[in-house]
């Protein structure tokens, strides 16, 4: 209970800090949001978007789940992307994984994890798609790190399969999709520098969702 009560004390401190130099801070905050970024990250308690990016409230629209997934059949993450693209008009979408991800490691264990099984199957599918590359990595830790990167890549590709993203990108030129990994050992954000224009060209014949006249 002591830890829980500390939340409210810290909240008061935070309010005082925010209004110290700007008395209208919360009035302005309540007026609405116009973030430039959608950040899709892992639920891991060590990985917080605002801290990683040095962002302030109102600057980043955030969605987090186990292992930063954007599964094709997940209405939750799909609705977040749809809202961010069509209503918030974000300019950038970041999918950010992190090394030492418990979700990635859990997915590769031969265990029944109950309700988590269908969720983690998405990661197993990523492994299956890239099995040839991953199987030749003999060091287990290095293999997990590479799977983290490939998982981020595949979740980004799931985003560019979406009609909302395709229509916005092909007409406006945004939002640009970025694949990042947080190195939990150093604190660095790593850009995987994936060419998503090339990726879109390679999949558009199959995943073009009514954009042929754009």
Structural topology:
Elements: H1 2-19, H2 25-30, E1 37-42, H3 49-53, E2 60-65, H4 75-86, E3 92-98, H5 102-107, H6 116-129, H7 131-135, H8 140-160, H9 163-172, E4 176-182, E5 189-191, H10 196-207
Parallel strand pairs: 1-2, 1-3, 3-4
Antiparallel strand pairs: 4-5
Task: Give a brief outline of the structure.
The protein is built from ten helices and five strands.
Would you kindly provide a written description of the structure presented here, covering whatever features stand out?
The protein is an alpha/beta fold and 214 residues long. It contains ten helices and five strands. It has helices at 2-19, 25-30, 49-53, 75-86, 102-107, 116-129, 131-135, 140-160, 163-172, 196-207; strands at 37-42, 60-65, 92-98, 176-182, 189-191. Strands 2-1-3-4-5 form a five-stranded mixed beta sheet. Strand 4 and strand 5 (189-191) form a beta hairpin.
Helix segment tally: 10
Please report the total strand number as a whole number. Answer: 5
Helix % is: 40-55%
Computed over alpha carbons, the radius of gyration is: 19 Å
Distance between the termini: 57 Å
Major sheet: size, sense and barrel closure?
5 strands, mixed
How would you write the strand order of the largest sheet?
A: 2-1-3-4-5
| Percent of sequence in beta strands | 5-15%
Structural class category:
alpha/beta
Order of helices and strands: HHEHEHEHHHHHEEH
Shape: globular
Spell out the key features of this protein.
alpha/beta; 214 residues; five-stranded mixed β-sheet
